[in-house]
Design brief:
It contains 8 helices and no strands. By secondary structure, the protein is mainly alpha-helical. The termini are far apart.
Length: 149
């Protein structure tokens, strides 16, 4: 432990990569948190989360639903959003984090983006280290892919 601290201070520390399943669970939980933000976690949002998870991770519909359900449990047990964004930020390179922000915008748009969802998306993008400009571009791509403007 002290050796790790000294390595960090010297700049020689490389953290162990996180298992892919932790990043997947963190993304699923973030999607659920976005869906629940307005207090109305709709079937349309759950369906959108399942589709986005299936597309993102090439999962079967059943596996995507199971991942979403695990995300629902993780989201309900987590006191803050930071724990999810930290896992993703540590495990995913920047260019792929912009894709994650785009996926989150797709979930937010499932039942229309309200002010609370917009605010949470700005926070999440910031915590993921994604710039406002890149987040805005991700939102435009997400809405365009859904046929919205």
């Amino acid at each position: 432990m002290i050796g790790d601290l000294l390595k960090r201070l010297a700049g020689d520390y490389t953290p162990e990569p996180l298992p892919a399943d932790q990043a997947r669970l963190a993304l699923a939980a973030l999607m659920v948190r976005i869906g629940r933000t307005d207090g109305d976690y709709t079937a349309a949002e759950r369906s959108r989360i399942d589709r986005v998870l299936a597309e993102t991770y090439r999962l079967s519909p059943e596996a995507a639903t199971a991942l979403r359900r695990d995300g629902e449990t993780a989201e309900a047990d987590a006191p803050d959003t930071v724990r999810f964004t930290r896992v993703i930020k540590d495990a995913v390179p920047y260019e792929h984090r912009t894709e994650i922000v785009e996926a989150l915008w797709r979930v937010a748009a499932a039942d229309g983006i309200n002010a609370d969802e917009h605010g949470l998306m700005r926070l999440v993008a910031n915590l993921l280290g994604v710039s406002d400009q890149d987040s805005g571009l991700a939102r435009q791509r997400a809405l365009r892919s859904l046929g919205e403007s």
